[in-house]
Design brief:
The structure holds two protein chains of two kinds.
Chain A lengths: L10 H29 L22 H8 L9 H32 L6 H11 L5 H13 L6 H25 L4 H8 L4 H12 L1 H17 L2 H6 L8 H6 L9 H35 L2
Helix pairs in contact in A: 1-12, 2-12, 3-6, 3-9, 4-6, 6-9, 6-12, 7-8, 9-12
Chain B lengths: L2 H27 L16 H8 L1 H32 L6 H8 L1 H4 L2 H11 L6 H8 L16 H27 L2 H9 L4 H29 L3 H6 L11 H10 L4 H29 L4
Helix pairs in contact in B: 1-13, 2-13, 3-8, 3-10, 8-10, 10-13, 12-13
The chains are: A mainly alpha, B mainly alpha.
């Protein structure tokens, strides 16, 4: 923005300063991932080199092969299964959450005169702060009571519940921005409210729904502590829980840890690169306004 | 009335899986549930008394307060700086903007493992780079030094959050009407005057909301510390969330852990209500 410029006489050094600052930011941001990426192509023996080699001496894909087949050096974890579990849980939660949040967002945006609506909206808004360690113990006990512990379905429902407050809130914002006239026109043509919602309103709020789905997928795919306490059987573990199990290996199989980490985060980063613009806008707007 | 058909499903799910458990925790904290011992009796405030009297709890509570206050301050300052920087016009600006959001996209487990590996005291790349740049005389045991470990973990936790705050601030900066600065131009204000009297007041709301969100997120951060140090060495990097986990699943004292959870929750609730208050002022009333 021109208003923040320092004046013309500093034009050249300013450019250089900006470039240096930008470079510093990018390096600070990407170096951990870059380092993991490099480590994941190193042989086990090379991991322990001091000083660490910045480029793998004899790059290998064995580590990834090991992770894919469950034949790692350190542990024999069924990673393909972990990925499948995560995909089912996070995908299911994203789907469920999007459906519920879309209906609710529409409801809160349109049925503003129902009794208690604003109280319910406040409840939703404040409950987005609660999912976290304070809930670990009570949720653990509640899930046991409901026989939903050690169950992938249980975790799917739990993650849906955790993502719902924020996604419902975002969704309210989306539907408030859609003019009512559109539906009214459809209703004159003989559509019911539900039909008008499904056929007219939903299709034009695709971006909002995609943001909702991605957010729910993102937090479910990444969630660690609740998966850790609720999933006892290894075959039900998510990727996050499987990765956390490397804690017990006392800083040994760093190349395997790195490969698994790359595989866990790569899908998210790739999706993000495609949807970056509207996703970031949706999130920041959701956090700032209604 | 059919409107409730749209509205109620999320409310019901949130009540069952978020609100009811909190109420249930109150009940649990007044009992003596132990994951291994079968007998359960009502003990009233005993768990709270035990927790509040414990020296370890005091230390961890203090850690948590440092974690939240310094973390929020740091995140807001870095977020503000970064937001202002990204508001400048330069080539590749949108690329940098995209890249800085990646840490927020990355799973916390991955971020924690990445930094734990980078900061490794014997073969960590951070030590090697700092040595090469002559910034440290010898390898530093980042995660074993008792005076430092908490802040090293905090740095990693902040590293994941400040991109979000920066982009929130950037979005607000973009929304400031240009006329405001043009009016300032005529009055002959300099850069700093413009920053303090024009930009900061416009950013106040974003800073307040960002600060409260950061506080709440930092209160909820478990994974970073748990993966990087498990709270160690001893309790030097332990914060309340890690204590809750350890009390329940390593010492099996479920009721004691519920008591700590509620202490943590009350602090969280206070900040959440302040957030709600700040938010409502700006709320577009329907």
């Amino acid at each position: 923005m021109a208003s923040l410029a320092y004046g013309k006489k500093f034009a050249i050094p300013k450019k250089i300063i900006i470039a240096l600052v930008a470079l510093f930011i990018v390096v600070m941001t990407l170096s951990p991932f870059l380092w993991l990426f490099i480590t994941s192509f190193k042989h086990y023996s090379e991991v322990f080199d001091v000083p660490p080699s910045l480029i793998p001496k004899t790059p290998t894909l064995d580590v990834y092969k090991g992770v894919f087949t469950g034949e790692q050096l350190g542990r024999h974890d069924p990673w393909p299964l972990f990925f499948l579990n995560s995909l089912i849980i996070a995908g299911g939660a994203a789907l469920l959450c999007t459906i519920i949040a879309s209906f609710a967002g529409y409801g809160f945006a349109r049925f503003t005169r129902l009794p208690g609506v604003s109280v319910l909206l406040l409840l939703i808004l404040v409950s987005q702060m609660f999912p976290g360690p304070s809930l670990l113990i009570p949720v653990y006990s509640t899930m046991r009571k409901l026989s939903l512990d050690n169950s992938r379905l249980g975790l799917l429902i739990l993650y849906t519940a955790f993502a719902l407050p924020f996604t419902t809130w975002m969704s309210v914002g989306t539907f408030r921005n859609i003019p009512v006239d559109l539906e009214d026109a459809a209703k004159i043509d003989g559509c019911s409210r539900l039909q008008a919602f499904l056929r007219i309103v939903l299709p034009i709020s695709k971006l909002g729904m995609a943001t909702t789905a991605l957010f729910a997928f993102l937090i479910s795919w990444s969630e660690y502590p609740f998966g850790l306490i609720l999933l006892k059987t290894q075959s039900k573990h998510t990727v996050a829980v499987g990765l956390g199990a490397y804690l017990r290996e006392f800083d040994v199989f760093w190349n395997e840890m790195a490969a698994a980490t790359v595989m866990m985060s790569l899908p998210l980063v790739i999706i993000f690169l495609f949807v970056q613009k509207f996703f970031v806008r949706g999130l920041t707007e959701g956090a700032l306004s209604g | 009335m059919s409107g409730f058909f749209y509205i109620l499903p999320p409310v019901i799910i949130i009540v069952i899986f978020i609100i009811v458990p909190i109420i249930y925790a109150v009940d649990l904290s007044l009992l003596s549930v132990h994951l291994i011992k079968p007998t359960v009796k009502f003990v009233g405030g005993y768990n709270y008394l035990k927790v509040l009297k414990s020296k370890t709890f005091h230390q961890i509570f203090l850690n948590s307060m440092r974690w939240i206050s310094l973390g929020t301050l740091g995140t807001i300052l870095i977020g503000l700086g970064l937001g202002l920087f990204l508001n400048l016009e330069f080539k590749l600006n949108s690329l940098v903007r995209g890249i800085i959001f990646i840490p927020w996209i990355m799973p916390e487990v991955c971020v924690a493992f990445a930094w734990r590996w980078m900061l490794n005291s014997e073969m960590g790349v951070v030590n090697e780079v700092l040595m090469k740049l002559h910034l440290v005389p010898a390898y530093v045991p980042w995660l074993a030094e008792k005076g430092m470990v908490l802040y090293v973990c905090l740095f990693v936790a902040m590293w994941r959050i400040y991109p979000f705050i920066a982009l929130m601030i950037l979005a607000t900066l973009h929304a400031i009407p240009k006329e405001l600065y043009e009016a300032g131009q005529i009055d002959g204000t300099n850069f700093w005057q413009k920053f303090i009297f024009l930009t900061i007041p416009q950013l106040r709301y974003a800073l307040v909301i960002g600060g409260l969100l950061t506080t709440i997120w930092l209160m909820n951060s478990f994974t970073t510390v748990f993966i990087m140090t498990e709270g160690g060495p001893l309790h030097y990097s332990e914060i309340l969330p890690v204590l809750i986990y350890k009390t329940a699943f390593q010492s099996y004292r479920l009721s004691r852990a519920a008591a700590i959870s509620l202490i943590n929750f009350v602090i969280l609730l206070i900040f959440s209500l302040i957030y709600l208050q700040a938010f409502r002022k700006h709320w577009r009333v329907t």
